[in-house]
Every structure is written in structure tokens, then in C-alpha cells.
Amino acid sequence: MTEKPYNLVAGQSRERLAALSDGVFAVAMTLLVLDLHTPVASTVHNERELLSALLVMAPRLLIYLGSFMTLGIFWVGQQTQLNLIERSSRDLTWIHLAFLAGVTLMPFSTALMAEFITLRSALVIYWANILVLGLILFASWRVAVSYKLLGNTEPELIRAVERRIVVAQTLYAAGAALCVISPLLSLAVIVATQLVYVIGPKAGLLSRI
Amino acid sequence: MTEKPYNLVAGQSRERLAALSDGVFAVAMTLLVLDLHTPVASTVHNERELLSALLVMAPRLLIYLGSFMTLGIFWVGQQTQLNLIERSSRDLTWIHLAFLAGVTLMPFSTALMAEFITLRSALVIYWANILVLGLILFASWRVAVSYKLLGNTEPELIRAVERRIVVAQTLYAAGAALCVISPLLSLAVIVATQLVYVIGPKAGLLSRI
Amino acid sequence: MTEKPYNLVAGQSRERLAALSDGVFAVAMTLLVLDLHTPVASTVHNERELLSALLVMAPRLLIYLGSFMTLGIFWVGQQTQLNLIERSSRDLTWIHLAFLAGVTLMPFSTALMAEFITLRSALVIYWANILVLGLILFASWRVAVSYKLLGNTEPELIRAVERRIVVAQTLYAAGAALCVISPLLSLAVIVATQLVYVIGPKAGLLSRI
Amino acid sequence: MTEKPYNLVAGQSRERLAALSDGVFAVAMTLLVLDLHTPVASTVHNERELLSALLVMAPRLLIYLGSFMTLGIFWVGQQTQLNLIERSSRDLTWIHLAFLAGVTLMPFSTALMAEFITLRSALVIYWANILVLGLILFASWRVAVSYKLLGNTEPELIRAVERRIVVAQTLYAAGAALCVISPLLSLAVIVATQLVYVIGPKAGLLSRI
Fold first, then answer.
1. CA of D28: which chain B residue's CA is closest?
2. How many Å from the N-terminal Cα to the C-terminal Cα in chain C?
3. C30 to chain B: nearest residue by CA?
4. Which of B35, D55, D177, D183 has its CA 20 to 30 A from that of A109?
5. What is the domain extent for residue D51?
6. pLDDT score of B42
């Protein structure tokens, strides 16, 4: 296999993978909130009109903050994995590039949900984006474990990383399923799940997962 | 607490937190000024029309440079904290992610103020954005101190960091309060405060805070 | 040659070249997908209309994912080269800056092809962008080799890097030539070539190149 | 001076300054070219119409590539300085933040010139942007030298850095002055100067500066 020399050296750098990831997350996070447009000047002539225009935007702001939190959760998750591996490999690099492609789609699916918050399809696409990110992160962990790219990592920790992804995605899926009742209810459950993951450990919640 | 293994390793990397922060600041800073649109070609036919179109944009340019300075101040402030801590923790990482969410909102609140410079609500939102950034930076410092994430840091320096945030935010709040008289006056006081922080130390000002 | 002192120190940093590259790739990758606009709210009133609006966008999404993969391939390729060189030089830095200029053009040529997918000129420009990236990467490798900027690298690996670029570009060119029959066929061959490069090594394909 | 403890630790990190700079340059470089919009689909129905629409864009593409080169020159220049200094300081950090503010204005002044290429004011603003970048870089070098932030640097190199900036800015200013004859002539001279700086050292030109 003469390809060996090339593929053995390609995509080895964990540091550059981390740097590219930080860049993609930074751009996606900033563009997310950038979709908030200022009210059109010609429709606002006084304080009251500005305040009511901003009030109309409030749900949109909440959705964007929610997506920022989602990206934050996945950034922490990916970072934790990359910190635990000792080196990357060509395959792992491509799995993480697929992960980053999913990250760049987040501003789109967020904008879609913000625009069509009452339609189920918009919520399902938003959830599908979260699901894809979770699946790829799960796959990247499995690959890192089976290719022995990890440094000295306790088996318990290996299982903890997997369990965490599975539990979170189960809750997200349950939330998404509620969209047969109401997309807004779905969104509320998904955001609540995320808040538990962000604030939970502090509050003593989630101590079993 | 079986969650320990995961949460002990999640979000530990000070380096990646710094890299993500630099990315978010870089994008926010560049997008800030990008909101300056060139005059519409169809309305400009000669030098005089171009110059007058640019003159109309001048206040907007000043506001954007002011926001760039604001982001610069907070970037230096965050950097100083991150340089002093020895490692991050999951909680500290999330506090800084909240800080970055505030940073990404800066282009929006800047554009809002540039568009509605005579309306108090626009100024109050702009100030609220600065306030939120200050509060989170204060919280992150307190957490870093109480969780003993700092390396060897003199107590005097610990107090200096806190005092600096409190004094600056007090001056910003006083400036914002002046918007009952005029939003422009508020803005002038806020920008003057920032200039003192940027140029002050050099000029021998601020030697007591 | 009094210029020596300056040009000997200018553009030496491999690390900063890598950091700038990661930044440019991150922004280009994110902006690529950002060109997906949500359907206009006034044209969508129910689930069916949203789904059909999204279906219309599907080919565009595929094209964007294809371009993301293209950028991923070139990012891995550039990274591999930069990992193998021990230091940069002023000339090599400028070659990589030219490479990055080509990267920043990718969102434009992608949008062009997405918009005019049935026109040959759009496909030729898209291919020309890929060709330029390949040529510059080939040139940068030759310069790195002849200026002895590489560390200890086996001759076989040096040839493998070159061969890889030449074979890939030959396949891309063959694909592009098919546009005399149909631009869509061209695109399919180009994307298939890329998929082989991404998935191939794993599947045992490409073992001879 | 009780402020000392804070200002002695604020803004010290050369690494984070470099990271922020790479981020700002990366975003500015990518956004520059992003201003190239694809022709409007409704005005293009066949190959000939697309080609002629692209031909109309050609000068704009050249201007954007020119600005990319400008940013490249300043990125190399700043990088060279940051590589030579051993640590940053609060003052130097703020000088570089001002430099980055100038960098973020480059997409605006480029778009302005692309839009109004026959008007002198547009060219003067473009040149003023380059001048500001040069002046700040000159100032940052002087500060680095006089604050003894450099490591062991030969006096000859110190002078070479300064001379280079002065000569380049003199040529740019001479080019800009030619706009009394024609803005296009000005632009040609400025771009020619830049090309000499990029390619010159290789070609044996510039051996005296």
C-alpha cells in the first residue's frame, strides 16, 4: 500500500483541528446573533414604537440565545474529547470536519425555527441538526477509543462520555416528539434539557449520568 | 456522584477557551465595522455627492469605532483574567461562554444605537449590553478566586481587578442615567469613560483605581 | 544586499501562518452554508408550503456541503504540508497567502454554481477555483522541498504528496471536461472524486496513489 | 500608584494578541472577497449573458484581490514585529488594537473604491486607510523599541523595519497624489508598489531598502 506514507501523516494535528473548530464555532456563534436585524428606521419614530418593535423581537432573541447555548454545549463536548485524545488521525479529522459542517448549519436551522416557530417541520429540522451533531460526536468518540487515539483514560470515563451523549439525545428526541402536540412545547423541553446540562452539575442534578 | 469523571475533565482547557474567545471577538469586531455600507451608487454622481454622503455616515463611523474600543476594553479585561488563572473549570467555562454571548450581541446593540441615536431606549440597551459584560466578568473573577483557579496572585491584584470593574461600571451607569437629559450626552460620557481607561494609565490618570 | 536583515525575519512563523489559515478556512466554511437563506415568510403559510420550499433548496444544500468537503480536503492538504515543514519563509508565506485568497473565493464560485447549475461557465469557474488551489498547493510543496524548509522527510513521502495532487487534479479536470456533455455530470464526477479521497483510504481504494 | 498591579498584568500576552490579530485578518480577508455578489439570476438566461455579467465584475475582482494583497502585506508586517518582541505591554496592545480597527475598515474602503472607481475621494479614502495602517505599525515599532520590549535585535534590523515602512508609505503617497491626474493611475501605482514589495525581494529588486 503505497498510499501509507501520505495517509499516515495527513490530518494528524490535534492542535490545528482544535483551532479550526474554535474558528468555526466562533463564526457560527457570532453570525447566529447577527441575524437579529435592527427595526427598520422608517417604521420607528419615538420611544414607544422602538420598544414595541424590540418586544416583537424578544422571542427571536431567546431562540438565538438558545442556539448559542446549544453550540456552547457541543463546543464543550468536542473540546472534552479533543483534550482526551493524544493525536488525531485522518479518519478522526474527517469525522470532526463532518461535525463542523453540522455546526455551520446551525445558524440556518435556527433562523428557520425563529421564522416559522409554529410549524412542526421547522422544529424537526432544528432537532435533526442537534441529533446529527450528537451522532457525529458519538461516532468520533467510538473511533477515538477503538483506534486507541486516547491517552491513558479510565474505562469509567469512556463510558461516561458515551452515556452523556445518549441520555441527552434521548431527552432531545422525546422533546422533539412532543411537537405532535405543539412545536413550542417541544422547544421548551429541548431548551430545558440544555439548561439542565449547563446548570445541572452545579445544582447537584444529573449526578447519575 | 458518578458524574464526576465527566465533569472533572469537561471544559478544562484554558487555551481553547482563549482561542474561542479570540475568534468571537475577532468576528464581532470585524462585523461591527462591516455594517458601514457604501453609499448607494445611483445616488452619487460626482465628488461632492460622495463627500456629502460620507459626511452623513461620519457619526455612524464614530459609534462603530466606539464599540470597537468597548470590545477592545473587554478583550483586554478577559485576557488579563485568563492569563492569571492556571486552569479553567466547567463552571468558569460556562461563565465565559455567557460573556461571549454578550460580546456577540454588541454588533446588534451598536447598530441599534447608530440607527436611533436620539432615542433613550436605544442607549439604555447599549448600556445594558456593557453592564452585562461587566457583571459577567466580575462574576468570572469571583468564581476564579473562590474556586482557587488562580495561580499565585497577590491579594492586592485580586482587589484591583474587582475595583476596576466596579468603578468603570459605576461611571457607565452614571453616564447612562444622563439619558434623562439627552441620549447623546450619555453616549459622550460613556465614550469619555472608555477613553480614560484606554489612555488614562499612560497619562497618569486613574492612578487611584 | 541590505534588505537581508528584514526579509530573513519576515514571515517566518509557521504557527501564525497556520492560525491565519485556520481562521480563513473557518470563516469561508461557515459563510458557505450561510448563503442558505430561509424561505421568505410571506410565501409560507403551512407545513406543506414550508416542506416544498425546503425541497426546492435541497440541491443548493448539497452543493454547499460539496464545497465544504472541497474546503475540508484542501485544509487537510495544507495542514499536512505545514506539519511537515520546519519553518516558513517569506516566499512560502506569500504562496500560502495566495492559496488563502483562492479559499476566500470558494463561497463566491460555489454560490455562482448553485445559482446557475445548468450553465457551463459556472461549472468551469468552480473547477478553475479548485484547479488554482491545487496548483498553488503543488507550488508550495515544491518551494518547501527546494528551499529545504522540510524537516527530515523521506523522499517517498515527498513524491506521494506531489502524486496525490496531480492525480486528484487530473480527475477534476477530466470531470470538468465532461461539461461539454452536461455541467451536472461534471459536478457529479468532481464530487465523486472528492468522496473517493475522503472515504477512499478507509475503503482500501486509492492504495496506489 | 496603586494602579500598577493591574496595569502591569493587563495586556501582556503576545500570543493572544497574535491570535486576535489572525482572527481579525482572517475575517476581514474573507469578507473582502465575499462582497462579490453573483449576478442576479433573473438577468442571466444563457452562457453569453453569464459571461458578460462576469466580465463586468472583473475590475471589482481585481480590486478585491489587490486589497487581499494589502492585508497580506500588513499581516506579514505585523507578524514580523510581534515575532521580534518578547512580550507585549498594555500600551502596545492598544496600539495593535487600533491597528486592527484599521484592518476592519479595509473591506469598507475597498468596497467604496470598487463602487466609485472614477472618483478621487474614494481613492483618497482607500489610501488614507493604508496610510493609517502604516502609521500605526510604525508607532508600534517605535514603542516596542523604546519600551525595550524587543528581544536581542540588531540595530540594523530595527532601522530596516522602520525604513521599509517609510519607503512604502512614501511610494503609496506619491501614487495617491497622482489622483489629481486620474484615480485609476493612482490605483495602478499603489498596486504596482505592493507587487514590488511582495515579489521584489525574490526578483532582486528592493535590495537597498
1. B30
2. 44
3. B27
4. B35
5. 4-203
6. 84
